Amino acid sequence: MTGRTILILGDQLSPQLAALRGANRAADRVLMAEVMAEADYVPHHRKKLAFVFSAMRHFAQGMRADGWQVDYVRLDDPANTGTLGGELRRAMARHGHARAVVTEPGEWRLLQQMREWPGLEILPDDRFLADRHGFAAWAEGRKGLRMEHFYRLMRRKTGLLMDGGEPAGGRWNFDAENRSRADPDLAMPRPPRFAPDAITREVLDMVAARFPDRFGTLEPFWFAVTRTDAEAAFAQFLRHALPQFGTYQDAMLAGQPFLFHAVVSTYLNAGLLDPLAMCRAVEAEWRAGRVPLNSAEGFIRQIIGWREFVRGIYWWRMPGYDRVNALDAHRPLPEFYWSGETDLACLSACITQTRDEAYAHHIQRLMVTGNFALLAGIDPHALHEWYLAVYADAYEWVELPNTVGMSQFADGGLLASKPYAASGAYIDRMSDYCRTCAYDVKAKAGPRACPFNLLYWHFVARHQDRLARNPRMAQAVRTWERFAPDRQEQLWRDAERFLAGLA
Ligand code: FAD
Ligand code: DLZ
Ligand code: SF4
């Protein structure tokens, strides 16, 4: 029997992968390759690089132990061609294979390339709960595309948190209970830290040597890089953080990057965890009376709702979705997004944390770094490339819709019903960042006024025609219109002065 080359990508580390299900351990060869093209298409954070390479090497080791024949090409192999296409060609020639198989990649750019590779069969990625073509059919022709409608379909489809056809607790969504501010004295669990083993050590040395100038603190490196450790991290979340997850989901605290978040997106997106199994485990915790419904529902909504919804939008709207710019924003990304050196305490905290951990939780991404970029009119494509580079969980299928759709409104409202634009008051309400800031969050004008306050009104004024048509923003436009002309002028001038100082 002639064998085939089974290509497995760095975010496809799942034993149940479609490409492996039909494969033959004796006849087929698995190929995994560390390549410069994937390490370089954006300047990935050094922790992200270390995670991907170490997790790939551990996965290959596990596959071999499980009886598979695995060709593993390291980044520093002198024969490495530097691209996945080159490595696939080389492997097929080495083994005399005319045919190869891959599971659909998570990024459109790679899918386009793969469609040109001779002999390659591309199988659907069925590690998601919603089929992407099914999503497109559902979305096509709908007037308003709202996550909540999709989420309810997914609840019915999976049966998660359903009691006799009705949502558990009588409501679909408990978000209103999930907006508490966190007290710094609150006892907070920390995600488990895994000491690097010999494989990870070798990868860390390679990343340090090959990517000395990249963004991101490499060590201490504590991520799980195997399925067993990722499952242990998730089990710890279930026990110690999930009960409070919902309540403090939107809170931010200086020096507390993780609060009650799961910190599992990196593992989940790489294939080390299974989304449905996670949700079932969360539901079981609620049914056993160990966690409240607002936490269980909030978590499950993120996974079967938002995560699946953004993926559906990505594939439905690509190509082209990476270039949307409905608000015509063209300001370059400020340098401090790469250094954290800014006197805006909230931005400095979120960016230095990102540099150190390759992680920020949702509200930090949406309401601090994202909100600032939206208000300041930063080019959404430049911002997209930043998010794609700096977070260990970032792949375009999930990052792009969150960035250009949810956080920048650059798709004109396809994904989000209103722009997530907020003044400093929101950040002050949900965090303790303002306490140590050089600016005064209560000041609305003048040199010490919180820049979010100035930029908020600049944003409303810039886009008043469009925002006046949005029922959820019209009130802000009316408020702006009621300001006396000299107040409007001062706000505009102060904001312009601040923007002129952005480098
Ligand atoms: P938790 O807060 O504990 O949530 C649990 C899980 O729900 C997450 O692990 C994640 O898998 C899922 N989830 C929650 N919110 C979302 C969402 N909006 N979209 C998709 N999944 C969600 N998430 C990524 O996985 N990769 C990205 O590249 C990414 N980029 C983002 C960019 C921006 C501008 C914004 C606003 C959000 C982005 N998110 C991204 C969503 C979210 O911020 C992260 O999933 C979350 O912070 C991961 O941390 P956690 O595991 O502790 O999540
Ligand atoms: C992110 C990443 C990196 C940094 N390196 C590799 C690699 O060397 N080899 C590989 O197979 N995959 C890598 N990945 C993950 C891919 O970029 C990912 O599969 C695509 O972006 C599609 O989601
Ligand atoms: Fe951020 Fe404004 Fe608060 Fe400073 S005062 S931390 S800039 S919201």
Tell me what you see in this structure.
The chain has about 500 residues and is mostly helical. It has 22 helices and seven strands. It has a five-stranded parallel beta sheet with strand order 3-2-1-4-5, with helices on both faces. Strands 6-7 form a two-stranded antiparallel ribbon. Helix 6 crosses helix 12 (about 295-315). The longest helix has 25 residues, at about 295-315.
Key words describing this protein structure:
binds iron/sulfur cluster; binds ligand DLZ; five-stranded parallel beta sheet; mainly alpha; two-stranded antiparallel sheet; 22 helices; binds flavin-adenine dinucleotide; 503 residues; 49% helix
Topology, pairings included?
Blueprint: E1 4-7, H1 18-21, E2 29-33, H2 36-40, H3 46-65, E3 70-73, H4 84-95, E4 99-103, H5 108-114, E5 120-123, H6 132-139, H7 147-158, E6 162-163, E7 166-167, H8 198-210, H9 227-245, H10 265-270, H11 275-287, H12 293-317, H13 336-339, H14 345-357, H15 362-376, H16 380-390, H17 396-407, H18 424-430, H19 451-462, H20 464-468, H21 474-482, H22 485-500
Parallel strand pairs: 1-2, 1-4, 2-3, 4-5
Antiparallel strand pairs: 6-7
Bound molecules: flavin-adenine dinucleotide, ligand DLZ and iron/sulfur cluster.
